[in-house]
Specification:
By secondary structure, this protein is of the alpha/beta class. The chain is about 35% helix and about 20% strand. The strands form four sheets. It has a seven-stranded mixed sheet, sandwiched between helices. It has a two-stranded antiparallel ribbon with strand order 1-2. A two-stranded antiparallel ribbon has the order 3-4. A hairpin with a 2-residue loop joins strand 3 and strand 4. The structure holds S-adenosylmethionine. The site of S-adenosylmethionine (SAM) has 23 residues, from helix 6, strand 6 and helix 8.
Length: about 300
């Protein structure tokens, strides 16, 4: 990034907020970054210690040399190393909740809001117990705890470092009292307990897919993304164990890759689930499969 240090009449050029945004948008576009303008605005707001929308009130304000130096470093890491914006700013909004994110967690995706919408439709307000498997930043557990004020949520995560991020998010959002965070492998920390709902956005990529993925994914934890050689390994383990951990009439919902929806639907059917549904994201891709354990069973 060289232009924002160019000179004017012998001295250093004063770069206004708008000029910095416009220059960086063009630079990111040249580098093939899709959300170029939005990324430029988010990074500049972070470098200036302000909110993105406040930049619109300060377009003509010149940035100080310190602010520009901070911004230049962020722009460089975004363009050259493809670090996701959320990992540069340490923040990501999910379901309107401001979440902390670090390289120890998957950056919550808008796709996962499909799971939240499906859950709010399926789960009435009231005293509910919800289990979130592989909670990462806590995104799903915290969004459901926020929306269902009487629910108690248990969030399980294998990575201690990720669980620590979820704990900080729960505390910041004042939801820690209703969100129990447990470290361990899938259902193992909740053996013998039953829930009204089990939800998960598990790792569901096949290891062989690693080479074709967006460069940005290299900055997120491998164990959050890859399930094994097939991609469906963790989904299969959840479907197999879920009936034991759900109350009769309990609801299971799994986020997955669109190409896995049919297979997982078949598994739910074979496992005796009823009311099996596929939920689509805004791009009309199958994103979540859900089903209910029959009421007649224990
Ligand atoms: C795709 S990320 C989802 C994170 C978060 N729920 C979200 O939607 O943004 C999957 C998470 O599951 C965790 N995980 C992977 N395998 C697990 C296992 N066997 N038991 C518990 N957690 C696991 C990973 O560490 C990662 O945090």
């Amino acid at each position: 990034m060289s232009a924002p240090v160019s000179t004017q009449s012998g001295g250093e050029k004063r770069w206004t907020v708008l000029e910095l945004i416009l220059w960086t948008t063009g630079y990111f576009q040249e580098k093939g970054i899709e959300s170029a303008r939005l990324d430029a605005e988010c990074l500049l707001a972070h470098a200036l210690g302000t909110e993105r929308l406040r930049l619109y009130l300060e377009f003509e304000k010149p940035a100080t040399p310190d602010e520009r130096a901070r911004y230049r470093e962020l722009v460089k890491r975004r363009a050259d190393e493809r670090v996701p914006v959320a990992l540069l700013t340490g923040a990501k909004e999910f379901w309107s909740l401001p979440l902390l994110v670090t390289p120890d967690v998957l950056v919550p995706r808008p796709d996962t809001e499909t799971l939240i919408e499906a859950a709010l439709h399926a789960l009435p307000d009231g005293e509910l117990s919800i289990l979130d498997l592989g909670t990462g930043s806590g995104a799903i557990a915290l969004a459901l705890a926020k929306e269902r004020a009487q629910a108690r949520v248990v969030a399980v995560e294998r990575s201690a470092a990720a669980l620590d991020v979820a704990r900080r998010n729960a505390e910041r959002l004042e939801l820690a009292e209703r969100v129990e965070l447990l470290q361990g492998d899938l259902f193992e920390p909740v053996a013998g307990r039953v829930f009204d709902a089990v939800v998960s956005n598990p790792p569901y990529l096949a290891e062989a897919e690693a080479a074709e993925l967006a460069l940005e994914l290299a900055h997120e934890p491998k164990e959050a993304l890859f399930a094994g050689p097939l991609g469906t390994e963790v989904l299969a383990r959840i479907v197999e164990a879920a009936p034991e951990q759900l109350r009769p009439g309990g609801w299971l919902a799994l986020e997955l890759a669109p190409a896995q929806a049919e297979t997982v639907t078949d598994w739910l059917d074979q496992a005796g689930f009823e009311s099996i549904e596929t939920h689509r994201d805004l791009g009309n891709r199958a994103r979540v499969v859900s089903g209910r354990k029959p009421r007649g069973e224990d």
